[in-house]
Amino acid sequence: MKLVGISGSLIGAKTSKAVYEVLSAVKALDFSVQIELIDLKEYEIEFVNGSPLSFYNDDTIKVVNKILEADMLVFGTPIYQASISGVLKNLLDFFPVDSFKKKVTGMITTGGTEKHFLVSEYHLRPILTYLKGTVPVNQVFIHNDNFDDDTEITNAGLKKRIQKLAEEMLSLQNSMKK
Ligand SMILES: Cc1cc2nc3c(=O)[nH]c(=O)nc-3n(C[C@H](O)[C@H](O)[C@H](O)COP(=O)(O)O)c2cc1C
Questions:
Q1: Ligand 1 site: residues with CB under 6 angstroms?
Q2: pLDDT value of residue 178
Q3: Atom of ligand 1 at shortest range from CA of 10
Q4: What is the pLDDT of residues 96-141, one digit of tens each?
Q5: Strand 104-111's sheet: what is its strand order?
Q6: I need a surface site. Which of 3, 67, 104, 149 has the fewest CB within 10 A?
């Protein structure tokens, strides 16, 4: 089983760290799961312009196909202007409806204000559901203050939430195989 994590930030390192924590937690629960982190700041993803996928640059084709080929996905985004990042929304615009059918699609967000802890529920969940992803009821929001040195997450409560998300993702994905 392949789990791909997508980090939707081109600026800092918090979102990619958060996504990596979910990948590691799933791997720790089931060592047979192959994990891969797609940090969007390492790729030149083009803007969706309506062309067939083959007309886009190599990075765009590579990232879209990696996501389509994954069994399970976790999307991480910084909160921007009370919503998801533009780069993540643009990436999601590449996928035809039904693309995430039979895939568990987890969510983890980072932000500067706790007031936006439900942004994933109102802005990301509807997109993933529209694409037929199975979205876990557990989602994680991490306030910037919970990152030590911009990268380490030490808060025990948050670690527990990440663990619960990982457990639910695995259990949902395993139930879909039957
Ligand atoms: C353009 C921009 C808009 C932002 N808007 C919000 C916001 O509306 N709510 C919020 O909680 N944080 C907001 N932030 C803060 C980021 O979500 C936060 O710093 C995040 O952890 C950055 O993640 P990164 O280190 O992966 O880039 C904003 C940051 C930027 C750059």
A1: 9, 11-15, 78-82, 110-113, 116, 144
A2: 65
A3: 27
A4: 999 999 999 999 999 999 999 999 999 999 999 999 999 999 999 9
A5: 34-39, 2-7, 72-78, 104-111, 140-143
A6: 149
